[in-house]
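I hope you will forgive my troubling you with a question about protein structure. The full record is reproduced below for your convenience:

——
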Amino acid sequence: MIVIKLELHSARDGSIKELGRAHVSNIGGHLNDKKADYLFEIFRKGSKTKVQHCCVIKNYSRQAYTVWELIRRGLEAILNKKTQETMIDNEKLEQDKLNDFMKRINEIQIQLTRLSKDGFGRQYETSDEISSFKL
């Protein structure tokens, strides 16, 4: 397990105050495996047992990246998502981005079709015309 502690060291009196704590635990993958799954947990302020946010990082390439990349991905998943539990499959991440883009294109097509029916514009039928809009 990796323990991450953020501490404030006072220049005035030398006191140390813990500002935050997180744990990263290997939940799938042995020592010789190239990829592993990790549980990333952020704890409530002042607690070592009460989890405030967590996510699972799946298929992390252990030998290709540093520990800081693992920590960055965990923080990014927690800070950018509204749900407390987030599954990140690194192999499918690019496909998910493409799916989100295509979903947005479909939403734009629906909006343009509604405008056409209302008489405010024409119906766009080709993807070239759709892609010229700023997303």
